[in-house]
Amino acid sequence: MRTTTTAPAVQVSQLTRTFRVRSGVLGRREVTAVDDLTLTIEAGESVGYIGANGAGKSTTIKMLAGILVPTSGTVRTCGLEPVAQRKALARRMGVVFGQRSQLWWDLPLAESYRILAAVHGLSAAREQERTAELVERLELGAFLATPVRQLSLGQRMRGEVAAALLHSPALLVLDEPTIGLDVLSKQRLREFLLAERAAHGTTLLLTTHDMGDVSRLCERVLLVDHGRLAYDGSLAGLSREVGARRVLVVDLAAPTPDLVEVPHAEHLGSEGGGLRQRLAFDDAATTAAAVLAAVSERVQVRDLSVEEPDVEDVVRRVYQSRGR
Ligand SMILES: Nc1ncnc2c1ncn2[C@@H]1O[C@H](COP(=O)(O)OP(=O)(O)OP(=O)(O)O)[C@@H](O)[C@H]1O
Question: The whole model's pTM is what?
């Protein structure tokens, strides 16, 4: 197993970034994308960085990666100064931008990995071992020889994640990793990230609009609002604060009266004469498995799904609960 550094994965203090943007025909105004942000992420944590559109998430990540220079404040990523020590940082950090590729569009994935292994100075043995591990765990084998431009979005995202992890970075930053993916592809990618973290102790920091990503992958949630930290804590704590609930949808073997007495769950509605029922529950009080078990004691369940609260909805509720 890789030895982890004792330095925090991320340490920012009073970090601020402004942009000058056009306003009106001749005018210009200043936008503060990140505003006096102070936070620490310890090595080994898994953190979800959430917020509404334009809240400042991508700008923060770009500063962590040394792509953008802060206007003021300090930033240390893996103990390094991102802009001044960008090369050294690249050895310890992997970044995946959901909307932007780091792969060579016309080359097969296998070729991209060969180039990246050379860039990172991996030994031939290490390159072979790590590529084989990632190909197996991300199920890339069937399309390793296909030019990236011909891959589906789900295939390409798996390819991107492997590219970011090839050099076994201590910190993996993912910007919207599951955007546009179907349910199964999301699930596979999340399972992989959990396994990777369990195997190597990788620190995970991800921005997402998908609460499923946060609830499956993140032990800690940072909510940013207009560039400022609005919440730092567990998802359960955030759910408690805003009353965000998940919804278990069950398809039953026979029409059933409304399931109104399931512990820690609220019956939201029924369709098809009670064949499909929706039950809201709070993650802080129970689990989807416990609600399902309670339903199964009463009636035969044929199929089920769990609907996640929407990040935008959670963000809106936080702002509302704070009187904004
Ligand atoms: N290069 C830039 N020039 C001017 N303004 C910018 C630039 N990059 C970001 N901004 C502005 O800074 C603010 C924060 O943007 P940022 O992309 O960090 O938000 P975000 O939280 O990542 O949003 P989203 O969820 O939509 O990706 C927005 O008002 C945006 O318009």
Answer: 0.82
